[in-house]
Amino acid sequence: MTVTPGLIIRLQSGFYTVQTQDGPWVCHLRGRLKKGRRSGDLAALGDHVLVTPLAPGRGLIEEIVERKRALSRTAPTPRGEYQQIIIANPDQAVFIFACARPAARFGMLDRFLVIAEKQGIPAVVIANKVDLVGIETARLLFGRYTQLGYPVVYTSVKTGEGFDELGSHLSGKISVFAGPSGVGKSSLLNVLLPDLKLKEQEVSQATTKGKHTTVVRELYPLPGGGYVADTPGLKALGLWDIEAEELDGYFPEMHPLVANCQFNNCTHVHEPGCAVLRAVEAGQIHPERYQSYLRMRFGETEGA
Ligand code: GDP
Ligand code: ZN
């Protein structure tokens, strides 16, 4: 029998909608795939699969193609750890903040970036509402991230500024969006995905907050190719499982310096011969980034 390749774009009570070259097929998993003990989700949004047709618009998932990467969380269960896949094969995480109203919470952005580094997912930053402060002020605020190598796109839903550039970052890719509320995420996604009523959906998600539901259930196709997955925020997804000792490895500006610290268990706070502290004092590491590091390493679980 002929198998057709496809992409899982929707999960709904045990059924998977698979986008194939012949359109979307509603599928379930072939029974043999479910045999044996599982340590994680078998199939997830963003998985590439092979399906066989059952009826028009219906099919059976025969095989799940090996994942390149995944946005996942590990949940403890009575039978051991279980890896829950939030999105398989995301190409990038897109973190949206506002230049003003509300003022950007860089501590939260830094936390998101650490999660993306930990999960091995490239990150893009959107600085929205650039119309409120002007591009120069916006660059003063967000420029530190450009210097670290993260693309920063300055957008305004009001004026349309930055949307061409944003489009070229999103085109053909699977992007996971996250950001705090009020920054214009739904306004922006409503422009990118004109057919969707995301605002309403967000309201219904808010009511289930704290119930540990899987929040993302759908990849939304972009008119120019690629998909967007919306999430209410990575904190809600419980992705923070980073050991204190590995944290410096997720700060691109610290990572290459750590080997030069005098002590190999250096915490970069008070130790003599600390290369990170030297860089902070020399102004080579942004002071707020260093503060974020300290908060994540020692502080309360602020913000994100
Ligand atoms: P969300 O909570 O992140 O989904 O934010 P919303 O999309 O609901 O937007 C919050 C508020 O910011 C609304 O009043 C929007 O009209 C406004 N807003 C969104 N984008 C922009 C922008 O680029 N510039 C300005 N000035 N306001 C915006
Ligand atoms: Zn050090």
Fill in the keyword field for this structure.
Ribonucleotide Reductase Protein R1, domain 1, Rossmann fold, binds zinc ion, 6-stranded mixed β-sheet, binds guanosine-5'-diphosphate, alpha/beta, single chain, 3 domains, 7 helices, 13 strands, OB fold (Dihydrolipoamide Acetyltransferase, E2P)
What does this entry look like structurally?
By secondary structure, this protein is α/β, with parallel strands linked by helices. The protein has 3 domains: 4-66, Nucleic acid-binding proteins (OB fold (Dihydrolipoamide Acetyltransferase, E2P), Beta Barrel); 92-236, P-loop containing nucleotide triphosphate hydrolases (Rossmann fold), CATH 3.40.50; 244-297, Ribonucleotide Reductase Protein R1, domain 1 (Orthogonal Bundle), CATH 1.10.40. Helix content is 24%, strand content 27%. It has 7 helices and 13 strands. Bound molecules: guanosine-5'-diphosphate (GDP) and zinc ion (ZN). Guanosine-5'-diphosphate (GDP) is lined by residues 128-129, 131-132, 156-158, 181-187.
